[in-house]
Design goal:
The structure holds 2 protein chains of 2 kinds. Chain A has a 3-stranded mixed beta sheet. Chain A is elongated and about 85 Å long. Chain A is α+β, with helices and mostly antiparallel strands. The N and C termini of chain A lie far apart (74 Å). Chain A has a single domain, classed as Alpha-Beta Plaits (2-Layer Sandwich), CATH 3.30.70.20. In chain A, a hairpin with a 7-residue loop joins β2 and β3. The model of chain A has no long low-confidence stretch (mean pLDDT 92). Chain B has one domain: Formate dehydrogenase/DMSO reductase domain (Formate dehydrogenase/DMSO reductase fold). In chain B, α3 packs antiparallel against α4 and α6 runs antiparallel to α9. Chain B is mostly helical. Classes of the chains: A alpha+beta, B mainly alpha. Bound molecules: iron/sulfur cluster (SF4) (2 copies).
Amino acid sequence: MTSLPSTTTGVALGLAIDLDSCVGCHACAVACKEWNSGGHAAPLTDLDPYGAAPNGVWFNRIHSYEAGEGGDGLTVHFPRSCLHCAEPACVTVCPTGASYKRGEDGIVLVDESMCIGCKLCSWACPYGAREFDQAEGVMKKCTLCVDRIYNENLPEAERIPACVSVCPTKSRHFGDFNDPDSSVSRLTAGRGGYDLMPEMGYRPTNKYLPPRRQAPVAGALPPVEAEPAPASGFLRWLDRILSR
Amino acid sequence: MHPAYSVILFTTASGTGYGLLAFAALFSLLGRLPGDAWFLGGLVALALALIAGGLLSSTFHLGRPERAWRAFSQWRTSWLSREGVLACLSFPVALGFAAGRIFGLAGTAGLAVATIAISIATVATTAMIYASLRPIRHWHHPLVPLGYVVFAGQAGAAWLQMWQALWGRADPMVTAAAVLLPAVGLIVKLAYWRAVDTGRAASTAETATGLGRFGRVRPLDPPHTSANYLLNEMGYRVARRHAAKLRGYALALAFVVPSMLSAVALVGSPGLAATAAVVAAAAMSLGLVVERWLFFAEARHSVTLYYDAQPV
Ligand code: SF4
Ligand code: SF4
């Protein structure tokens, strides 16, 4: 049913993504692609994978931005994936019931066997989190690794989303945002975690932790170009030799 | 947004069909159309063929058309589902009205009213599929459903005038509708373009990333080197000067020219008026296809903020 769940446990599973420590390595995107190529939403089809214009389904896309000007500007790496919104219009617009939000943990999923590939849900998502599989004719999206997090065949430590498990800088955190004592809730509270496009009213579950402002380093070395060339003697000779 | 021809054809053809159906029922109620089997039966058949053709065309847009029947299930939340349900219900209602009128059965008036109501409601639900989408500012606007209904009405009036002309008939009330409705349509479309050209989205690259606190946000490295589904489907952009030119064609073909041609019936000979009515209907349908193409091509989706940071 594409009505939002009327009875919920209150659990709101999601990710807290730390933009301060993300280095833009794309490891999470690659791990996502790898796991999901064999998981719940498999396959994640690639068209023309070895050709000039490969085009495939990915659930996680890593952008890089500049924010602010000059010396005050920042370079920020920005992973973008489904935010498992509390008010997901992607679900309510679906005419078939293929899209649904789970009452037990808030995960937003697609039942591919019911999807007619009308693409309306991808239009309804402000964040571009849904990607159409042209080869299979159905819509696909992040599952929050629903096939890992409850998977009793995996050791307990691995029962987290694939993207979280591989991040080399531990910039992705997984947990229940409804539990004020969970690590993600504490991180969000402590770091001022925020919603993307709050004005859309979708109330995303995932939170982004803002980059920290770098304080200017006291007594920093002046730029190398500003260094005057040695004026005389052996050093001047050496400088000329080396500058050739 | 990518202007898919299947969807453009669907919305324009089914809109024309519902306009025609509504006017067939309305003018029958007013006693201005003959209940002749060929005239009225043919008219309703033409309208239902336009609607069925449109619906069929829309299924070409689906990834899994063989499962299209599933789309009737979620009418509680989904405008697309509601549209499908109403479209299917409109067939028995319209056929009942046509049969009642042709065979002179009791209760035909009620079915005529129902035909008018379901025609307007179906076009409005089609429009709500688009107007309910908050990420697309150009669609999430009250003038969108109003425009869909008015454009369907003016197309129905023009096609009814053409149908009458083909049967050697004319009716000043139909002519009045065919002349005046495009003028209303013109006002709605101009108001819509003014609204979307001067309006601004609340969402920007700064709110999309939350990085506005540091200053202006600009893309540095893209997440992928070739196109993907999102860019093909939602990153479509029409050049500004092409859009301006196409807006001119749409204005002329969908509104100005057909209204003037329909007015020929007031002054010209029956033969000239009939020719003018046929050309008017053809011009309007072409114009509405251009209008609908622009409705898609000029719409910008908030996901593009992540890619080019340009205002949506
Ligand atoms: S991010 Fe998009 S796809 Fe995910 S729940 Fe929100 S609206 Fe739906
Ligand atoms: S593409 Fe599939 S999941 Fe999305 S709205 Fe259409 S039927 Fe539902």
